[in-house]
Each structure stands twice: as structure tokens, then as C-alpha cells.
Amino acid sequence: MLNGNMGENEPFKPMDSEQLREYGHKMVDFIADYYKSIEKFPVLSQVQPYYLKDLLPDAAPDQPEKFQDVLDDITKKIIPGVTHWQSPNFFGYYPGNSSIAGFLGEMICSGLNVIGFSWITSPASTELEVIVLDWLAKLLNLPDQFLSSGHGGGVIQGTASEAILVVLLAARDKILGRIGRNSLDKLVVYSSDQVHAAFKKACQIAGIYTENFRVLKTDASSGYGIDPKKFDQAIHDDMEAGLIPFFLCSTVGTTSSASVDPLVEIGQITEENDMWFHVDAAYAGSACICPEYRHYLDGVEYADSFCMNAHKWLLTNFDCSALWVKDSSALVNSLSTNPEFLKNKMSEQKKVVDFKDWQIPLGRRFRSLKLWMVLRLYGAENLREYIRNHIKLANLFEQLVRSDSRFEIVCPTLFSLVCFRFLPSNDDNDGYELNSMLLDAVNSTGQLFFTHTIISDKYILRFAVGAALTEERHVRESWKVIQNQATIISRQHILSKTNMKSKCEGMIANE
Ligand SMILES: *Cc1c(COP(=O)(O)O)cnc(C)c1O
């Protein structure tokens, strides 16, 4: 038992290094075995809502239980309710990578368990974060203004959603500082209709008026990127109406289709109009460490802030969202607090960065350890190869889809996301039902997991390659499963239609 050395009158000891060693090794074995057998589980958990309520007691135990009993419960009760994001057959949403280096970094982060909100609370936590984000900025070839040597720098947020929120707050307070706080109702924000839902949420939190949220419509002709002319026109109209355009949230690699906004053109427009320009590259940013994909970031030099999630496609276990800003004082002016109990000489003398002033919460984990270990233990060349391999596999999947005339590719495959759909027969409406049935049927097999989106009112299937364990055979096998289910579904579809038809005919005959 965990506290087996507890005598009658000895106090409870929740930490003991020898016990940590013993149980820590067991847990590592458990996790290694999980990865070894991960392909055996259905990728999408097949449980029903509240399945766990019936399996667990309704109150915490009074007395300690055995570690092995807990492990057994994880195997028997928890794992069935897990959707296996690390399965090589996980192709849903965007990936959420894990890796050995990321895992080891997570262990040491948990092991030290420091709360590095101010420099003084753990100088290494702040300083490593500054250095590692400079490293990553250089791998992405970001402009020097995003480096810590100037007025800006990088910071690790939990998620891209938090990144959007903090830069929106900084931008809002910067402009309100100039024009007066009672002008909040005049501030207008812009994005395309492909922007992540996190932007809308951030606007709600920041108090941006709903009627001042401009959603620029995109279509296939511009590859689902923002049309600079429409953007310019919208700004013009808003200024005519006495409103104040102040923020653009653009995307490199949108969540629906991985489309890319034309950063150079829209960046110039934000510059002319003195607006804050945020570039959200949560998923596709990782690809830009490869020189051949870096051009998707051309124009980032106009941006005030840039974000990519190392926890999506760069082998860093969740969470690790990297945000860079050119002017960190905008963040600090908006988000800093300075209660007496946190005061210290280093902060007072402004000699140090206190990351509490660059984020929403106070407490923060030592997440840079993970990213540092990923960059050091793999090296940039391996990371680039890793990205390239996924893009190659996505291209292979695209070829497979193209070779079956029952399907079509809907958007160009820019990174590792393939958007496709099962073509409805002529007399069908838009294939909505057909494709959603196919998706459900495939995911119910448990053999792979993928997801969908709606683009231009069409139901689109998304196949996102990017799990660390995915190999060519997984992609080929998955495609076979999709094809087989498509065959079954179209048969059912035709059958149900013939049934309907004969029913109708029967009704007519009865009349
Ligand atoms: C995944 C994603 C997000 C949200 O990421 P979180 O880190 O979960 O908040 C935002 N924007 C884009 C483009 C994404 O792909």
C-alpha cells in the first residue's frame, strides 16, 4: 500500500521518494503497455452517457485503497470510456500529439510542480520559457520583433483560445486607453467565417458588442481565405458609420478545411488602419518549421501576435500553446495585477518578466520543460521529417479517395488534412444524410475515428493525419474501412428509397 510504512501513531506521509520510485515505475510500465496495445481498443469510445456512474461508488473512500486496485479500475472502467487520441487510427479534429520526449517533460514538470507566475517563484521556469520560445520562433523564422531581445517575446498559454483572448484584451485596452473607455460600443472586430469558435467566445468575454463582430464570407474561389477587398470594404463601411475597426483574427490552417488567409494583403490593410492583427496558426504553424511550408506565414511580419499549438502537431503533450507578441507592454498593461503579497524586489525593479501579467490566471506550470525536451531530444531535422511524413500520408489518402469515383475531394490538401465527401446520386439532395451516415457507420466500427464539418452548406468529411504512431498501413486500412462502409450505406440508402417508392406507389394504388 502507498502508505504501507505508516505506523499507528505516525502522521500520514503523502510523499516519500522510495515509494514514488516503486509506484512511478509501475505507472510507467502501465502507460508503456497501453501504448503497446493501443491498436486493440476501439478508437472512439463506445460507451453510453453516464456509463461510469454505475461502475463507481458515489462517495470517496475513508480509508486508503490499494494501488493495484486503482490500476485495475483504470483498465476495466476508465479505458472503455477513453477515446484513443494517441491511436495510429485517430484522424479526427486535429491531432493532439504525445511523444516520449513530451511525456518525459511532462513528468519532470509534474515532478518539480512549481507554480512559476513571477520570476522569483522559479527563475528557471520563466527563463527557460523565454529561451525556448525564442528557439521555436527561430525555427518558424518569425520576424525578430517577436523575439525576447526586443519589445516582444513568446509565452506559453494553455490553449490557442486563451491566446486569442489575451491578445484581444490587450488590443482592446490599448485602443480604449487612447479613445476613452466609453467607446467600447464602437469597437469592431473582423474575421472570416472560417475562424475558430474561440474568437467569438473571446469577443463575448471581452465585451465586444455582438453587432460589431464582422464575419467575412469566404468561398471556394479564394480557397476559403479572407478576400482582402471584402475586408477593406467592411472597414470602410464601418468607419463611415462612425465605428472603430481595431482587431483582425486571421487563420493559417483553419479548423474546418486548413485554408489560409492571405496574410500579406490583409496585413497591409490592418497596418494602414492601425488595427491589431492576430495570426492563429494553432494547427498548421507546426508545418512552417519546414522551409517549403514557411511561405504560408509570409506576411506574419505585419502581425502583432502569432500563435501555434505545439501540443497539436509538434510532439509536445497537451498543453503547450505558443504565443508571440511584438509589444509585450500591451499584454502587461491589460493583464497585470500587483497585490502586496506578490511584491518582490526583482519585479519592482522591472528587471524580470513576470508571466502572470501575460495570461489570464495567476498560477502556471513549468511547461517549457516539455517543449525544451522535445526540441533537444528530437532536433529540428527529425521534427521536419515528422511533419513531412504526415503530409505525405495525407497526400496518399487523397490519391486513394480520388481513385474511387464515388467520392470527391472538396478542398486542396495543403497540410495533413483531407476534406472529401461521398457523392450523392443525382436525385439526392446535398448528400448531408449520406455522409453523416457514413461517418457514424465508420466510427461505430471502432477501427478508426474521423470527423466532419460544414463548408458552403455541404457536409464534408475530414481526415486529419497527425498522430505520432500513424504509418502508411493505418491510412490504407482506414480507407478500406471507409470504402466498405460506403458500399453498405449506399445499398441501404437505395433500399430505403425503393421501399419509400413502393410505399408511395401503394398509397396511390389504394386511392
Ligand atoms: C485547434 C484550434 C484552435 C483551438 O485550440 P485550443 O488550443 O484547443 O484552444 C484554435 N484555432 C485553430 C485554427 C485551431 O485549429
UniProtKB/TrEMBL annotation:
Which GO terms of the molecular function aspect are on file? carboxy-lyase activity; pyridoxal phosphate binding
One GO process term, biological-process aspect: amino acid metabolic process
Alphabetized, the UniProt keywords read: Decarboxylase, Lyase, Pyridoxal phosphate
Q: Which cofactor does it need?
A: pyridoxal 5'-phosphate
Q: For the modification N6-(pyridoxal phosphate)lysine, which residues carry it?
A: K312
Q: Which CDD domains match?
A: DOPA_deC_like
Residues spanning the signal sequence: none
Q: Give the PROSITE patterns listed for this entry.
A: DDC_GAD_HDC_YDC
Per the UniProt record, one Pfam family is: Pyridoxal_deC
**GO CC field:** cytoplasm
Superkingdom, taxonomy of origin = Eukaryota
PANTHER family per the record? GROUP II PYRIDOXAL-5-PHOSPHATE DECARBOXYLASE (PTHR11999), MIP05841P (PTHR11999:SF70)
Family assignment from sequence similarity: Belongs to the group II decarboxylase family.
Instruction: Give the protein name, as stated in the record.
Output: Putative Aromatic aldehyde synthase (Or alternatively Tyrosine decarboxylase)
